[in-house]
What we know:
By secondary structure, the protein is α/β, with parallel strands linked by helices. It has one domain (7-303). It has helices at residues 9-26, 30-48, 53-63, 69-91, 98-102, 110-117, 138-141, 157-167, 180-187, 224-232, 267-282, 300-303, and strands at 105-107, 122-126, 146-151, 172-176, 193-198, 211-214, 217-220, 236-245, 248-257. The strands form 2 sheets. The chain has a 7-stranded mixed beta sheet with strand order 1-9-8-2-5-3-4. It has a two-stranded antiparallel sheet with strand order 6-7. Helix 8 links the parallel strand 3 and strand 4 (172-176).
Amino acid sequence: MKSTQKLNFWQKICLELLWLLCRGFAILPHFVRYGFFKYLIYWLLCYILRYRRKVIMQNLRNSFPDKSEGELYQICKDSYLNLSEQIVSILSQSGVSDETMLERLEVINAEETDKNLGDGNAIFMTAHYGPWEACIMMGLIFRRHELVGVYHKLENELMEELMKRIRRRTNSKLIDINATMRYFLQNKDKNPMILGLISDQNPAYRPNLYWHRFLHQWSAFYDGAEVIALKYKLPVFYFTPYKIKDGHYKGEYTMIYDGVEQVGPNVIMERYVRLLERDINANPHMWMWSHRRWKHTPPQELLSQKI
């Protein structure tokens, strides 16, 4: 693999050993992975490491001011359980066949969505809600399009190569967020592609950030999906997942922009935010509350307004 040329000899050895461990984990029976390791990881995160407990609880208090401390603590514990399940699910992808992966995720309205996609480029928007790694699987479902998963490159080169190997799927490609526009411009007129973007993280601060009302707080979002969609007239779809059982989900796509409608700035992102807020309110434990989501302070004129 060309990408491993950045690694030295010992890093390559470690990569292969880690890959073997991940492959071994992926072929364990379902009840071992989800009935034992899921709860082992949960116990470590929740009770031993208390992973970002203060961040999670503060985010919950600010987002649900009407809930009691006991209710918030239960959501906190359930969110640890969801995070543990997603960790197990990510490792369970290692070297597993495309057919097996398709058994773990169903798109309810796949035929309708495929029809709306047509033969052009499009954008899929999702969030760190439920099975966020499922985005990379969409190239298996919508086979007329190449799925381009946009992600943040890891600083650790060894873990970066391991995660790329775990996530590898037929008809899918991973692109670092900093190289997204270059890749899109070079390939937009070739085979049709779907840009898969997870847009719910805290963006880098800039003076012209747009602030949305979100979970009782002024919140900024990555707006790259909207910028590309408006400039190149691309339809945009939002994905809502529903859990069936451990490691198995179904979901549906909602078109939030058809690529033709005349909309003003921030409208597409506002639609995304409203759908994400709806999903979080329905199942708050499925969102990743451990992100330092509200690091930036909004302008003073917004702080004086009631949300």
